[in-house]
Amino acid sequence: MSDHSIDPLYEYGVVPVIRTRSAERANRAVEWLNDAGFRTFELAASICGIVGLVEELSGNVELDVGVGMVMDPGQARTCIEAGASYILTPGVAAGIVEPCREAGVACVLGASTPSEVMQAIDLGADAVKIFPISSLGGVPYVKTLKAMFPDTPLAPAGGIGISEIASYLRAGAAFVSVGHELTDAKALCAGDKDAIIDAAANALDQAARARTPPRNKKR
Question: Which one of 15, 121, 130, 216 has the minimum C-beta count within 10 Å?
């Protein structure tokens, strides 16, 4: 486990995944999502100008910025040096955990099968990203994995809609990643801030509802 806490990911329960082509559009997405109440964000390593963007955003102490789709240790080190708070991979990637530990940032390794989850645990991942969950079986698959690995923080990602957030969290997910519906390309291009704000508010509400203990029914 790393020294860096990934509590912000657990706290919100849902992490916006930003995979825009340009850093400018990604920055806009972060700004609008932040206005809606989000403080933690996953930026795709494929964003043009990702290093400069991470450097800029990490200068804001109120934001917790991670980089996802990291493929190798060199890329991880570059993102960490730029100020990334956590690193995520799409699969089990050897050598990623070490630079994260050295820098004290969290590492979330990707996995699809029980065997890969075991590998990620053995490598020292702080959490395991179950990806791509929509193709693996969705909520029932998370329940199955959680039964096998009750003490492992599981983070489903890939094709999750806002309306599904609560179901995944109730199934035992530590947090979930949501992309398209929170960072709709058309809304970002059109400057439709209200659409992004509304989607973000809905996502945060779904996560909060899933974690609110049910009231005891009156007899």
Answer: 216
Runs of H (alpha helix) within the chain: 7-12, 23-36, 50-58, 73-82, 97-103, 114-123, 133-136, 138-148, 165-170, 185-190, 193-210
Domains and CATH numbers, the chain: 7-210 (3.20.20.70)
DSSP-based three-state secondary structure for 96: coil
Residue 1: per-residue pLDDT:
46
| Residue 161 pLDDT > 90 | yes
Q: Please tell me the distance from the alpha carbon of residue 168 to that of residue 9, in angstroms, as a whole number.
A: 14
* Cα gap 207→219, rounded to integer Å: 29
CA nearest 20: which of 177, 212, 183?
183
What is the C-alpha separation between 70 and 131, in angstroms, rounded?
14
Q: What is the pLDDT of residues 22-46, one digit of tens each?
A: 999 999 999 999 999 999 999 999 9
Predicted local confidence at residue 214, as pLDDT: 56
Helix (H) / strand (E) element for 184: namely: none
Distance of CA 78 to the CA centre of its chain: 19
Please report, to the nearest 10 degrees, the dihedral formed by the alpha carbons of residues 52, 54, 58, 60 taken in order.
70
- What's the CA gap between 154 and 24, in Å, rounded? 31
Higher pLDDT pick, 177 / 2: 177
pTM value is 0.92
